[in-house]
Design a protein that fits this description.
The protein is an all-alpha fold and about 100 residues long. The chain has 3 helices and no strands. Helix 2 (about 40-50) runs antiparallel to helix 3 (about 55-95).
Amino acid sequence: MNVLLFENGPKVLAPLPIGFAVFIVHLATIPITGTGINPARSLGAAIIYNKDQAWDHHWIFWVGPFAGAALAAFYHQFVLRAGAVKALGSFRSQSHV
């Protein structure tokens, strides 16, 4: 929710884009999950409603965030940070001239 990090913008309007984003996610997921964007809340209902098939479609809510976090950590460590270290190295080599 990067909207809270802008120093120039009005802080009073920050909840609007956050609420709008949650509203859009709810509208998009009504036919898929019944608007269950919180996996902890949705798991109980999935178990009660589909005892035999509760995990068939629910596993992605638990695996997805962990896989996304691992990919983001890899990208940060080996792409973004590697570029910054390379740029810093070229800056240091030019500053001693």
